[in-house]
Amino acid sequence: MKSFAITLMLAAATSALATPPQYELRFLGQGFTGARMNARGHVAGWIVPAQGPTRAHVSFGGPTPVALPMPGGYVSSAAYDINDRGDAVGVVSMVSHPTLGSTTPVVWRRVGGGYVVQVLSPLQGDTVSYPVAINNVGDIVGGSGGIFGNSRGVLWTDAGAVHLTALGGAAGDVNDRRVVLAGLILLDLDTMTSQTIDPPYQKMAGGAQLNLWGNFAGTVTSYSDSCANFPARYIHGTGWEILGSCSNYTSASAINDHNDVTSYYSLSYAAWVRLEGEGDFAIASLVAPGQGAWYYPSSSHINNRRQISIAGVEMNTNQRGGVLLSPIGMCAADYTGDGFVNGDDYDAFAEDFDEAWPGADMNHDGFVNGDDYDAFSSAFDAGC
Questions:
Q1: For 109-125, what is each residue's pLDDT tens digit?
Q2: pLDDT (tens digit, 9 = 90+) per residue, 177-233?
Q3: Where are the strands (E) in 259-353, listed by range?
């Protein structure tokens, strides 16, 4: 069914009437670049050191990300997504940085208190293969092709790589209902039926990230050379909504299950967030005073707890790397990030604590010990 409804909602108009909520900022490590984040605030990414190859890491909220293991024979790696269990997906390469040559798809499986790496198969004959998303069911999707592009959509299973012909191109995301997003195509992996979302009238569009309800964040493109792109989201039953002003270098980069959306303007280093029901805010305006002078030069991710992962630069100390912004007063006992405090949180924390899993480091001091157990127990007993 065609939907040409498009709503223009400029960020400045909304923000003028709204008071920004206050956020705590945590620096995730010098040189760490975050990609996607899970419900617990754990971030997949990589570090490019001053000397040496790029290496995949996962941040668990503290200042020292955990390096992910490398399979033999490879030089560099990068992690692109992490699910709530802690499994991460990404690529390894035989050159110093994965973007410079052929890439091999991998998944890092959580085992005990650490990780083991599993090399995945590309589509036959392909030399550039990259998983970009893993859901909580365990589905892994991405693209596979050659050094000059022409990527095809892929689902990695225990039996190998499956070409998702209905997508027409690389997959960009998969949700927990097993729906895959590729551009404007939604593919249900259970039924293998697809739906194509029409762009707004006389516009082009593409999706970047998908939420549980099948709504997605992305970009609407006009036919103007001077000001082509608009950050946007698509909501089933509503249609397209423009979330900000035009720029040649902008996109909405992430959406959570509340339909909150983050967007960015790369040339002006402007990052914004639409908090549903509250307003549109410059991400810089969310950070409570006294936490440094930061600017945010890249796109970001937002989870259901409204935590925001983004690259940051502190102008006085020259700290450069990923930062995690968390709402002040966020419930520490909601360990699973599902919006409730119950036995599921206690069981999940107990499992992680027993395995000394880095995610159980509640106070972010780099250790999993009795202090973390006490911190979680106090929050759980308080019911917050």
A1: 999 899 999 999 999 99
A2: 999 999 999 999 999 999 999 998 768 889 999 999 999 999 999 877 678 899 999
A3: 261-265, 270-275, 279-282, 294-295, 300-302, 308-314, 320-327
DSSP readout, 212-280?
TTS-EEEEEE-S-SSS-EEEEEEETTTEEEE-S--BSSEEEEEE-TT--EEEEETTTTEEEEEETTTEE
SS3 31: coil
- Spell 96-133 as b/e; 16+ CB within 10 A means b: eebeeebbbbbbbebeeeebebeebbbbeebebbbbbb
β-strands 160-163, 173-174: how paired?
Answer: unpaired
The packing angle between helices 370-382 and 343-354, to 10°, is 180
pTM over 0.90: yes
Whole-number Cα distances in Å, 148 to 105, 125, 171, 172: 17, 14, 17, 18
Tokens of 177: 């209902």
**One-letter amino acid for residue 383 of the chain:** G
Would you kindly state where each structural domain of the chain is located, as residue ranges?
6-330, 331-384
DSSP 147-213: TTEEEEEEEEETTEEEE-GGGSS---EE-TT-EEEEBTEEEETTTTEEEEPPPSTT-EEEEEEE-TT
* CATH architecture designation of domain 6-330: 7 Propeller (2.130)
Tell me how far apart the alpha carbons of residues 352 and 132 are, in angstroms, rounded to a whole number: 25
**Distance, CA of 34 to CA of 340 (rounded, Å):** 26
CA dihedral 289, 290, 292, 293 (to 10 degrees): 40
Count CB neighbours of 271 within 10 A: 26
Helix (H/G/I), strand (E/B), else coil: 74: coil
Residue showing tokens 């754990």 = 42
